[in-house]
Write a structure and sequence with these properties.
- The protein is mostly helical.
- The protein has one domain (2-113).
- Helices cover 89% and strands 0% of the residues.
- The longest helix is centred in the middle third of the chain and has 29 residues, at 30-58.
- The chain is globular.
């Protein structure tokens, strides 16, 4: 169960932060909000997994730097590709960047508080 929490906690926090941000940015239909959830179900566990691998092999500091420098931009790009295929009337790159920044900032704040 503890291993599952390594993935579940960041996923749930990411979904919470990004759903609020998506709603504020005008994504209000069930389809749009469900898409935001599904995108994160795909990308967040993979990000956490590869981030943990980097931190294990390269150390926490170096692994964290590489996560933000390489993995997060990759996630933004993948999410952009998913959003652009489903939301034709939105600026999907801007959406992906903002949602991920909100998620990153929210996660960092939670780490500091908890």
């Amino acid at each position: 169960m503890n291993g599952l929490m390594v993935y579940l906690k960041p996923l749930l926090l990411t979904i919470l932060f990004e759903m609020i941000a998506a709603y504020i940015m005008g994504l209000r239909t069930k389809k749009e909000l469900l898409l935001t959830i599904l995108v994160n179900i795909i990308t967040n566990p993979l990000l956490v997994y590869f981030s943990l691998i980097l931190m294990y092999h390269l150390g926490i500091k170096t692994g964290t730097i590489l996560t933000y420098a390489i993995l997060e931009p990759l996630v933004i790009y993948v999410e952009y590709l998913i959003y652009i295929s489903c939301l034709s009337d939105r600026n999907c790159l801007f959406l992906s960047i903002v949602l991920n920044l909100v998620s990153i900032i929210g996660g960092l704040l939670c780490q500091r508080i908890i």
